[in-house]
Specification:
Layout lengths: L6 H30 L15 H31 L11 H26 L2 H6 L20 H18 L3 H18 L11 H10 L10 H6 L3 H11 L12
Helix pairs in contact: 1-2, 1-6, 2-5, 3-5, 3-6
Length: about 250
């Protein structure tokens, strides 16, 4: 059995803890790397930092976001309960977790892509999404630096898969930990070679175009909304041209 007593009594604190550890913990690691100058060659935008004033605003909103997630965790619990999830069920088989996690990522990739692309339409961008793009050069906590309506949309895209499948609470916790790692990494200010999304999202923030997806970026690939990023990456990979030496006289 995963727990005795009411499901919310263990699930809500567990989901809240996952958010705190994955959001603030991952940010702390990347921020320490920025301060120490670690992996400088993989820092995006030559490591250009956001302004001190913007970082102060970020910390304030990040604290509010974290505290408000306690209420959001109850919403997830309620949605799973309505879906018929048993919070006292035995732990799921490993293969169930193994196939459900990629499905959750696919659902998030799809729903997030279309939400994000819509938010870049001029009407919605001016009214909602512009706040998130105050960060041209991203830092991990900026993953949740956004308008309240955008927060709600991102919340739905993150938990739509688990609710649709009626996933076991343990699988939901594992999934949300991975989801937060992905989004904080995407906003880390680093684009390490083994991260499939960090370079895409850093480009999106710096140039404010394309690369609307998450995880697999399937819709970006299918619809060509990452073509500018691909051209940019290819240009970066070109060897620097050497100056032509004059012929000896």
């Amino acid at each position: 059995m995963t727990s005795s007593g009411p499901g919310w009594a263990w699930f809500v604190p567990a989901l809240f803890t996952v958010h705190v550890v994955s959001y603030w913990g991952t940010y702390a690691v990347f921020q320490a790397m920025h301060r120490a100058g670690v992996w400088a060659k993989w820092r995006v935008a030559n490591g250009t930092p956001p302004s001190e004033a913007l970082m102060k605003k970020l910390y304030g909103r990040a604290i509010v976001s974290t505290l408000s997630f306690g209420g959001a965790a109850f919403v997830v619990y309620g949605a799973l309960t309505l879906r018929g999830v048993d919070f006292s069920a035995p732990l799921p088989a490993w293969w169930t977790v193994a196939w459900q996690l990629p499905v959750f990522a696919l659902v998030t990739d799809t729903t997030f892509y279309w939400l994000h692309r819509t938010l870049h339409r001029p009407f919605w961008f001016r009214r909602i999404h512009r706040l998130h793009h105050d960060f041209r050069y991203v830092r991990g906590l900026s993953a949740e630096y956004s308008n309240t309506l955008e927060d709600l949309g991102n919340f739905i895209t993150s938990f739509a898969g688990p609710v649709l499948l009626g996933a076991h609470p343990f699988t939901v916790l594992v999934w949300f930990f991975l989801r937060m790692l992905e989004t904080v990494d995407a906003h880390s200010g680093y684009a390490v070679p083994w991260s499939p999304w960090a370079s895409r999202h850093a480009y999106h923030h710096e140039f404010n175009r394309g690369c609307f997806g998450a995880f697999f970026a399937l819709w970006d690939r299918a619809l060509g909304t990452d073509k500018d990023w691909r051209a940019w990456k290819a240009k970066q990979a070109e060897p620097a041209k050497q100056p032509v030496q004059p012929a000896a006289s």
